[in-house]
Design goal:
The complex is a heterodimer of chains A (341) and B (219). Chain A has 341 residues and is α/β, with parallel strands linked by helices. Chain A contains eleven helices and 14 strands. In chain A, helix 3 crosses helix 4, helix 3 runs parallel beside helix 5 and helix 5 packs parallel to helix 6. The longest helix of chain A has 18 residues. The two termini of chain A are 43 Å apart. In chain B, helix 1 crosses helix 8, helix 1 packs across helix 10 and helix 4 crosses helix 5. The longest helix of chain B is centred in the first third of the chain and has 38 residues. Classes of the chains: A alpha/beta (341), B mainly alpha (219). At the A-B interface, helix 2, strand 6 and helix 3 of A face helix 6 and helix 7 of B.
């Protein structure tokens, strides 16, 4: 990912904490959160509902004020800004929501013009920009429709166009696909990826769905119980989840490998270095020998394979050895695992 | 059925009633709308929470609303005299009507604005909208259909209040109903005034609802 600059993070969060004071006592939503998000990357924040991820994303544009720690946007400490300066900064942070949050009494065009109105952009210029964005998201024929006349996917496209109107540096997505059906979700994710590539906008994705992260994110932070428990490149966190919270998200069905039966078995780890090819099937055809797949959990991220497969090798020692060699030649990480009976 | 003078009087009464209602409603909105906005904005869940201010404002509005109109009508006579120069006639009735209606309208506006989706307000804030921009560009336009329904309720309520002002020589149809129907037992005139009021309420209410429906873009 050459366009991601790791020199200076666009968003830097340091030891952030947020406590809500409620009538039934203080509730801590976030504790000791530190992370950096770089220009041009798609950064995912995943966690179960109630983990604090929505609060975290609102701390990035100060819709929620952290009670502890600091948020730097583009090098500026947000807590040190005046109201006016904060309003100005927010114009360079777009945001989209689960429920789209469009103005229901305004047309599609007028919704996209809205942030420009707030920024005091002349009407004509605003209209031009809005039309350009709406044609980018494929809704140029809906300019004068009202949000109520659109489908969920179309509404989210309008919201995306609206969020991009002020040419933001960052786009925050708060469960942006959670209210959409799978195929619409794919389309919207594709659009986000496209926007990230074309406009070099940093995107922060908040979700509780692993597949959203897999599909578009470069890096991910896992939030559990108000804290970041794991952070790193998606493929790393994904192939080797270290914490139980991460494992719960990556393997929601539980880790079945340890109880899988077999005499001589090996584990093949797909870490993204191989393309998504039917390697096992090819091997079986080449050797004319059957293998038994004991466990498999692979996922396609960006056309690359991630995950692992555990296979039971044939009884013939020589063939088994050659199979392992064969797999290693395919640049796969293979390790023999014993103790499975 | 009626003599020309009576018809003329009824016509004038109708005109006065409409005049009082419209002028009072307009003036009452001048005060009630900002008050309603203030109630919503400074609420705990509002965009600019001001707990104590909100509490005091709410209390004052409740106090004003709990005074029976007839008593308010008489209690504010000195104020009326100071502003209008007289305490009888339609213009004089406008003063107590505005005082009675403004807090009522504040509550109507409050409930309309509270219907606006919090998510939409949050979206506007995420774009860097100031408090004023949220009010003028989100709260009021998004609540427009509901505000219009509220204004129909306000108009009809103020119309019936204005009829009560007849007791203190307030002019309009209520005045005629009291003088002819109540003091002189001319029941037919009273019935006609009541019928006219009924029609007026019907028209105002229907027009308001229709306007609200037409302006609502949520289908």
């Amino acid at each position: 990912m050459s366009e991601i600059s790791t020199e200076q993070p666009i968003i830097r969060i340091e030891r952030l904490g947020k406590v809500f004071h409620t009538s039934s006592g203080d509730v801590s939503a976030l504790e000791d959160i530190s992370l950096q998000i770089y220009q041009g990357e798609i950064f995912g924040i995943i966690g179960m509902s109630g983990a604090g991820k929505s609060t975290l994303v609102r701390c990035i544009n100060f819709l929620e004020q952290p009670t502890e720690g600091t948020v730097y946007f583009d090098g500026k400490d947000l807590s040190k800004l005046s109201k006016r300066e904060l309003y100005k900064i927010r114009q360079s942070i777009g945001m989209i929501f689960q429920q789209f949050n469009l103005l229901m009494q305004r047309t599609v065009l007028s919704n996209v013009c809205f942030p420009l109105e707030i920024a005091n952009v002349p009407k004509r210029k605003a209209r031009e920009k809005a039309e350009q964005l709406l044609s980018m998201v494929g809704l140029i024929d809906k300019l004068h429709a009202y949000p109520a006349q659109l489908s969920g996917g179309q509404r989210q496209r309008v919201a995306i166009a609206r969020a991009l109107a002020t040419d933001p540096k960052v786009l925050l997505c708060d469960e942006a696909t959670s209210a959409l059906d799978p195929s619409t979700t794919r389309d919207v994710l594709k659009l986000l990826k496209d926007i990230n590539k074309r406009l070099v906008i940093t995107i922060v994705v908040i979700t509780h769905e692993m597949h959203v992260i897999e599909e578009i994110c470069n890096r991910v932070a896992i939030i559990d119980d108000s804290r970041i428990v794991e952070i790193g490149r998606v493929e790393d966190v994904f192939t080797n989840p270290k914490t139980s919270a991460a494992r719960r998200l990556v393997f929601p069905e539980g880790h079945a490998v340890k109880t899988a039966p077999g005499s001589r078995c090996c584990r093949i780890v797909f870490d993204g270095s191989s393309a998504y090819e039917p390697i096992i099937a090819e091997m079986v055809l080449d050797f004319r020998q059957l293998v038994n797949i004991l466990f498999a959990d692979t996922k396609n991220i960006d056309g690359k394979a991630f995950g692992q497969i555990v296979i039971q090798l044939p009884d013939n020692e020589i063939i088994a050895d050659r199979m392992i060699e064969y797999l290693r030649e395919k640049r796969l990480a293979v390790e023999e695992v014993d103790g499975y009976v | 059925m009626f003599e020309p003078e009576v018809l003329k009087m009824l016509g004038r009464g109708l005109f006065e009633s409409i005049y009082m209602t419209l002028v009072s409603t307009a003036l009452a909105y001048l005060f009630g709308l900002p008050l309603g906005i203030a109630l919503v904005v400074t609420d705990n869940t509002g965009i600019l929470p001001k707990k104590n201010f909100n509490r005091v404002l709410g209390l004052i509005i409740n106090l004003l609303r709990s005074v029976p109109f007839l008593i308010l009508l008489i209690a504010v006579l000195p104020v009326t005299r100071a502003i209008v120069g007289t305490t009888i006639g339609s213009n004089a009735t406008v003063v107590p009507l505005v005082i009675a209606a403004a807090p009522f309208i504040a509550r109507l506006v409050e409930s309309s604005l509270k219907e606006v989706d919090k998510g939409v307000i949050e979206a506007a804030r995420s774009m860097g909208a100031s408090t004023m921009q949220v009010i003028t560009k989100v709260l009021l336009p998004e609540a427009r259909p509901s505000l219009l329904i509220g204004s129909a309720i306000a108009l009809t309520t103020i119309l019936s209040y204005s009829a009560m002002a007849g007791f203190v020589g307030g002019g309009g149809l209520g005045d005629i109903a009291i003088r002819y129907g109540y003091y002189r037992y001319e029941t037919d005139i009273m019935l006609v005034t009541v019928a006219l009021l009924v029609v007026l309420v019907q028209v105002l209410q229907e027009a308001g609802m229709k306007l609200a429906r037409m302006s609502d873009k949520r289908k």
